[in-house]
Amino acid sequence: MSGHSKWSTIKRKKGAADQKRGKEFSKLIRVIVAAAREGGGDIESNGKLRTAIDKARSINMPKDTMTQAIKRGTGEIEGMQFEELNYEGYGPGGIALLIETVTDNRNRTTADIRHLLSKYGGSLGETGCVQWMFNKKGVIYVPAAGTDEDKLTEIGIEAGADDVAREDESFRVTCEPSDFETLKKALEAGGFKIEESEISMEPQTTIKLDRKQAESVLRLMGMIEENDDVENVYSNFDISDEIMAQLDQ
């Protein structure tokens, strides 16, 4: 799993991403507001906003809700404003943690993140202490069922994909962020269904965990994701399939 986010795989396989629609909406609204505030309300020229809107559409967020969030971000209507803050630190086994948040109160969020890391065997680090261990990548998932892998690979590589790999019931297509939108459009034009797509932080190398460390890390990662202000959390841990099978029992 070197160079690949094991946490992303675990979330997809186990459905660990928040299943409560209201909470999903709440987190995404924050992201849309912050993206519109930073780069404006035009989804054609604001890639971050476009990605957030695509994700909102994938969970059937009402169009009016998205429009209201964009207008709040651009200042067209009043409402609570949010800012993006990133945190870096370490977890059990010396794993690196990169936490992206969208918050209306940085003091509260900082205190919450510090408390969670301390409580579950981690620690908050200085800015830049682990970010160098990750590369920003575009990641696109295409369902494996009914998909011609050779055709997917051919179209993907021509449109800028770095890699096409089978992951459980999906193909995982990665690329440089600058090729993300071009690649998505090429795959859609080629008749492929996009399950999920995002700009992710992918670890350059990974750290293997034993069972005890794995239990602690998964508990910590789950609690971080539960925080309302957390948008994404990335790490560089690796858990073997054997240990995962034991933990699933």
Give unreliable regions as ranges.
none
Calculate the terminal CA-CA distance, rounded to whole Å.
Answer: 22 Å
- Radius of gyration (Å): 18 Å
Any idea what the CATH architecture of the largest domain is? 2-Layer Sandwich
Integer count of domains: 3
- Count of alpha/pi helices: 9
Kindly report the average pLDDT value. 88
| Structural class computed from helices and strand pairing | alpha+beta
Form type = globular
- CATH topology of the largest domain, what is it called? Alpha-Beta Plaits
Beta-strand share of residues:
15-25%
CATH superfamily of the largest domain: YebC, transcriptional regulation domain
Strand order of the largest sheet: 3-1-2-9
Q: Biggest β-sheet, characterized?
A: 4 strands, antiparallel
Q: How many individual β-strands?
A: 10
Identify the CATH class of the largest domain: Alpha Beta
What percentage of residues falls in helices of 4 or more residues? 40-55%
- Series of secondary-structure elements, N-terminal to C-terminal: HHHHEEHEEHEEHEEHEEH
